[in-house]
Specification:
266 residues, mainly alpha, two-stranded antiparallel ribbon, 10 helices, 2 strands, VacJ family lipoprotein, lipoprotein, MlaA, signal
Length: 266
């Protein structure tokens, strides 16, 4: 989980398109482990390395439980809500650079322009990104990363992969990680101490925002997190397109034989 947070993906700021998306983002970042796979259950085709992934998942959970989570709790206690909001805005603003670059690579110039506008407005009027004036001006952009770019370029299906410190991901996202790091402004800070400090703050801040959400996970936690993560990534790659709703289509029809009298009984 530690590394997944360090990717600067900012789960709570990727997309705000409703509670289901927020829930998926929360679940994918959670550092919770479970017991091994149930014997006899059919293997998930997207997770052929489940045995390896489960062991790494447990390892990451131990690190989170005894290091990152206590730090996040302390941060949440001592940090006022307005300051937390400013920190969130600051790191989200830095991520607009990556979004703009990947939007161009994906052939989305409009989204690239929105991301660029957000960065310029919030970096100036918003005092270095601490204030999110762009959102108040209704200037919003879909967050993009290089894993999504690879998907747009044709790498549609990718195996689920959990790595030490990096946490949940896919082989495609792991391949794109170096490019995402290269597109992040913090990477180019000359002051190594400041760069390390900001990275640590980003990780702890995101973890603190997830503390209240862990109770939402139930059942086989490993599979719950895996399935939620894969669904969320698919949602992001498709820019929130969930497919056609048959009940919203003009040519959807039904007649009286589809329902019996019992369907309308009290």
């Amino acid at each position: 989980m530690l590394g997944l947070l360090a990717k600067h993906k900012g789960a709570l700021s990727w997309r705000h398109k409703g509670l289901p998306v927020l829930l998926l983002a929360v679940l994918s970042m959670s550092g919770c482990a479970s017991s091994g796979a149930n014997v006899g259950e059919q293997a998930n085709l997207e997770d052929p390395w489940e045995g390896f992934n489960r062991r790494v998942f447990t390892f990451n959970d131990v690190l989170d439980r005894y290091t990152l989570k206590p730090l996040a709790k302390g941060y949440q206690i001592v940090t006022p809500d307005p300051v937390e909001t400013g920190v969130s805005n600051f790191f989200s603003n830095l991520g607009e650079v990556r979004t703009a670059l990947n939007s161009l690579l994906q052939g989305k110039p409009a989204n690239a322009g929105l991301a660029t506008s957000r960065f310029l407005i919030n970096s100036t009027v918003g005092i270095g990104g601490l204030l999110d004036y762009a959102t108040l001006m209704e200037i919003n952009a879909d967050k993009e990363d290089f894993g999504q770019t690879l998907a747009v370029w044709g790498w549609n299906d990718s195996r689920y992969l959990v790595l030490p410190l990096l946490g949940p991901g896919t082989l495609r996202d792991t391949t794109g990680l170096p490019f995402d790091i290269a597109a992040h402004p913090i990477t180019y800070m000359d002051d190594h101490t400041l760069r390390a400090g900001l990275t640590a703050l980003d990780i702890i801040h995101i973890r603190a925002r997830l503390l209240d959400q862990e109770a939402l996970i139930s059942g086989d936690r490993y599979r719950f997190v895996r399935d939620a993560f894969l669904q969320r990534r698919q949602f992001e790659i498709k820019d929130g397109e969930l497919g056609d709703d048959p009940f919203a289509m003009d040519d959807f029809e039904f007649d009286g034989t589809d329902f019996g009298d019992d369907d309308f009984a009290d």
